[in-house]
Amino acid sequence: MNFVALIPARGGSKGIPDKNIQVLGGAPLISHTITAAKSSLGAANVFVSTDSTAIASIASDLGAQVPFLRPNHLSEDTSTAYKVVEHFIAWARAEAINLDAMVYLQPTSPLRSAAAISNACKLFEQSDTDSLVSVIPVPHQFSPSSLMQANEEWLTPIENFTSAPLRRQDKPVFFARNGPAILITRPDTLATHGNLYGERILKFEMSQKESVDIDSQQDLEYAAWLLGQREI
Question: How many CA atoms within 13 Å lie on the side-chain side of 62?
Fold first, then answer.
């Protein structure tokens, strides 16, 4: 099975200006994802979709393929991952690129390792699944049986206290997408289901450290600290 990595990196960012090329550990943020993807899948199978000439130049220098600039209508705040992937698949088919599965890697997950990408691809290849998504376990205190919502001045439990399990060991385990840091899907999944996930979604569990998702300056500082710990 031929896996092709797509790294989406638009130029606009409201939380952190030029987020995808902010320096983390002495290198642009996007470099960490490009390096991991190249190590796992090979440079020829790593593509960056961006509307920014600056990002395109940096990505090319890092050894990623940047064959086009993404259209403006796919680079807005409201642009969806589905449309970005759909656009790339259409381009790949027009270029006769062998693409059995798309590995969608957001640059905002810089601590995701090459080993994680490789292991996710192996798991995907061994399963008859529509997609694979990376997740982290939801802490038990955030499970539905522990959640409450504000109703005017009072709190109301999401689930009935009398029937919901309250002990940690009795609560069902839930999972949350960690970005996701890794999403693998098939072109047929998009065509058949009109989304990236389909019906049969395989989970790929990752550690909290590898799941750091850069949304704020504080996230960037935390990721830099974790990178420093790796070097000790």
Answer: 26
